[in-house]
Amino acid sequence: MPEDKGYGDGQNPVIKGEPATESEKKLYDLFSRSMLKMWSYPSVYNRPGKEMCDGLAVFREHVFIFSDKDCAWPDHRDLGVAWSRWYKKSILASAKQAWGAERWLKNNPAHVYLDDKCEIAFPLPIPANPTFHIIIVARNSSQQAKAHRGGMGCLDWRGEVSCDSSGVPELPFTTTDLDPQKTFVHVLDEVAVDILFTECDTFNDFVLYLSHKEALLRGPSQILSAKEPELLALYVTTFSEGIGNHFPNGDINCSDGGWNSLQMRPEFIVKKQEDEISYNWDRLIDSFATYSLNDRQYYVTDPSLDATSRVLMEMADEDRFTRRLLAKALAEVVHMDFENGGLRSRTVLAPGAKNKAYVFCVLQPLPDEDPDEYRKKRREFLSLKCLAAKCYMRDLEVVVGIGAEPRDGREHFSEDALFLDGQSWGEKEFQDALSELVKVKFLSVEGQTLKVVRATEYPEVGTDT
User: Fold this and answer.
1) How far apart are CA 335 and CA 325, in angstroms?
2) How far is CA 106 from the centre of its chain?
3) pTM for this structure?
4) Distance between CA 109 and CA 83 in Å, rounded?
5) Which pLDDT value is given to residue 3?
6) In 145-215, which ranges are E strands?
7) What are the φ and ψ backbone dihedral angles of 295, each rounded to 5 degrees?
């Protein structure tokens, strides 16, 4: 293992830009909750004084472009005129800006900045062959939509709606595919954006929904009516083994009330209760990310944001259900009974991933033990446990190690994260790892404690999970 270095002097923090408006701040707060701090950035620029987009998130090969328009509803007594003016400013102008940002990122990926002077480079690499997702939030239509059409006040997708020569749907409070020849634009109003980012609040859940939705709306099915919350409710309640959530085949007509009805279903309520522990996983990722972004990490082998992102990306790749299972498994270990200097560990196969495992290693400090010596010892144990997991399960390609302290009432805790890339291991690497384990008289490889976690995402009401 490379020698640890005591980085963390705070001299090279990542300074994110500030959202320009209150509505852009609301949008950033929402999408950074799904994408998490490491991969989410507000107010990104491509030229001095020229904002490229209101928000940008990069995760693996996916690039998310966010645009927010807070245009007041026009004061005109003719609904058609008011609708057309608002739609052009709020939706068509946003789409044009977002498509422009996409072109820039394709052609000039090295010239993206966090500040309006273009002095602070965007800290993450733009993928070579990215998959783009464009999300625009058009505010201030919901109150008008409620007044004229009732319901929740959301924009309605209509596949058959006609548009005028400017591209404005002739039926107010509807939207459609803005340009079938370009990257699909997900149009959200101020009601739908809160619902979507609250329900699909992990990268995995979010991108799967967007992808299924895009395939549906650009596919052969006839879409008679599909407001975003009702469309999301249909997606959440349609599940197939081996596929997961998806939309049903055939034509779609989402009646009002589907989303509100879903909130009242007992199994949905229990699912939300069971998911509460999963947010400890989010907090753990964001804690590591905060130290990395602020250049306050300790004992790192590589202090770069890209290196830290590599291990945290594995953790953030998990959907909400998997985070629930992993957070429960980690909680069981940190709340075990410990003696002074006691060590507890558990290796957990990542649900749904055949070649990925997590190693949770919890070490109780000795009385009056020097904190630096304790952290060093814990890191060494964690490293050995990860090596042992790889040797015990040779097919593992990724091992993520989490080192922690017991939760025994103390106020402050520390954690370590370790990434072991086993994809390229050959016989030499296995023998070297085994030799290191034997040399330090570590527990036998066969002694690894392996746990396969299983549960039901939507528990039956009144049953244990």
Assistant:
1) 16
2) 23
3) 0.91
4) 36
5) 43
6) 156-157, 174-175, 185-188
7) 55, 45
